[in-house]
Amino acid sequence: MEEKAASDNPQKTFTCQLCSLTSPFTYYGQKPPNTRAIVLLEECFITKDPFSPDREKFLVLGSICSLCGTYVCVGSVRLAECGTVASSPLSYI
Q: Which family does it belong to (predicted)?
Protein backbone atom coordinates (compact mmCIF):
# COMPACT_ATOMS: atom_id res chain seq x y z
CA MET A 1 0.00 0.00 0.00
CA GLU A 2 1.40 3.37 -0.99
CA GLU A 3 1.46 6.14 1.60
CA LYS A 4 0.48 9.64 0.50
CA ALA A 5 2.28 12.75 1.64
CA ALA A 6 0.31 15.20 3.76
CA SER A 7 0.31 17.67 0.88
CA ASP A 8 -1.53 15.11 -1.30
CA ASN A 9 -4.52 15.01 1.07
CA PRO A 10 -6.72 18.06 1.49
CA GLN A 11 -6.98 19.08 5.14
CA LYS A 12 -10.17 17.83 6.79
CA THR A 13 -11.82 20.11 9.34
CA PHE A 14 -14.22 19.37 12.21
CA THR A 15 -16.63 22.16 13.20
CA CYS A 16 -18.90 21.95 16.25
CA GLN A 17 -22.40 23.08 15.31
CA LEU A 18 -23.11 24.25 18.87
CA CYS A 19 -20.07 26.38 19.76
CA SER A 20 -18.37 26.80 16.34
CA LEU A 21 -15.08 25.24 17.50
CA THR A 22 -13.10 24.44 14.36
CA SER A 23 -10.06 22.17 14.23
CA PRO A 24 -8.34 19.99 11.66
CA PHE A 25 -8.74 16.26 12.24
CA THR A 26 -6.67 13.34 11.05
CA TYR A 27 -9.10 10.44 11.51
CA TYR A 28 -12.82 9.71 11.90
CA GLY A 29 -13.83 6.35 13.37
CA GLN A 30 -13.63 4.07 16.39
CA LYS A 31 -10.05 2.77 16.11
CA PRO A 32 -7.52 5.64 16.15
CA PRO A 33 -4.41 5.00 14.04
CA ASN A 34 -1.13 4.05 15.74
CA THR A 35 -2.94 2.66 18.79
CA ARG A 36 -2.86 -0.94 19.90
CA ALA A 37 -5.87 -1.83 22.00
CA ILE A 38 -8.06 1.27 21.95
CA VAL A 39 -11.53 1.07 20.45
CA LEU A 40 -13.89 3.97 21.11
CA LEU A 41 -17.56 3.26 21.80
CA GLU A 42 -18.70 5.55 18.97
CA GLU A 43 -17.13 7.04 15.86
CA CYS A 44 -15.23 10.23 16.75
CA PHE A 45 -13.19 12.94 15.09
CA ILE A 46 -9.57 12.38 16.17
CA THR A 47 -6.41 14.45 15.87
CA LYS A 48 -2.82 13.75 16.87
CA ASP A 49 -1.87 15.22 20.24
CA PRO A 50 0.26 18.25 19.30
CA PHE A 51 1.73 18.40 22.81
CA SER A 52 3.16 14.87 22.86
CA PRO A 53 5.97 13.30 20.84
CA ASP A 54 4.33 9.88 21.43
CA ARG A 55 2.63 8.73 18.20
CA GLU A 56 0.01 6.79 20.15
CA LYS A 57 -1.33 9.91 21.89
CA PHE A 58 -4.43 11.47 20.36
CA LEU A 59 -7.22 13.93 21.16
CA VAL A 60 -10.93 13.35 20.63
CA LEU A 61 -12.40 16.51 19.13
CA GLY A 62 -16.03 15.44 18.98
CA SER A 63 -18.58 13.24 17.29
CA ILE A 64 -21.92 13.26 15.50
CA CYS A 65 -25.05 13.00 17.66
CA SER A 66 -26.63 9.64 16.87
CA LEU A 67 -30.14 11.07 17.40
CA CYS A 68 -30.14 14.34 15.44
CA GLY A 69 -26.91 14.26 13.42
CA THR A 70 -25.48 17.44 14.95
CA TYR A 71 -21.68 17.73 15.03
CA VAL A 72 -20.79 18.26 18.71
CA CYS A 73 -17.41 18.82 20.35
CA VAL A 74 -16.23 17.25 23.58
CA GLY A 75 -16.32 20.57 25.43
CA SER A 76 -19.81 21.55 24.38
CA VAL A 77 -22.20 21.59 27.33
CA ARG A 78 -25.26 22.93 25.54
CA LEU A 79 -27.96 20.64 24.27
CA ALA A 80 -28.04 19.32 20.73
CA GLU A 81 -31.05 20.00 18.50
CA CYS A 82 -32.66 16.79 19.68
CA GLY A 83 -32.54 17.95 23.32
CA THR A 84 -30.15 15.20 24.40
CA VAL A 85 -26.80 15.89 26.05
CA ALA A 86 -23.96 14.17 24.18
CA SER A 87 -23.35 10.70 25.57
CA SER A 88 -20.47 8.23 25.39
CA PRO A 89 -17.67 8.50 24.48
CA LEU A 90 -17.84 12.27 24.80
CA SER A 91 -19.11 12.23 28.37
CA TYR A 92 -16.33 9.98 29.59
CA ILE A 93 -13.23 11.40 27.91
A: Belongs to the CDPF1 family.
pTM of the shown model: 0.72
How far CA 82 is from CA of 8, 10, 44, 55, 85, in Å, comes to 38, 32, 19, 36, 9
Bridge partners of 47, per DSSP, are: 59
Maximal CA-CA distance, the chain: 44
Q: Where are the domains of the chain?
A: 11-73
Low-confidence spans in the chain with pLDDT less than 70: 1-9, 76-93
Cβ neighbours, 10 Å, residue 33: 12
49: left (phi over 0), alpha (psi -120 to 50) or beta: beta
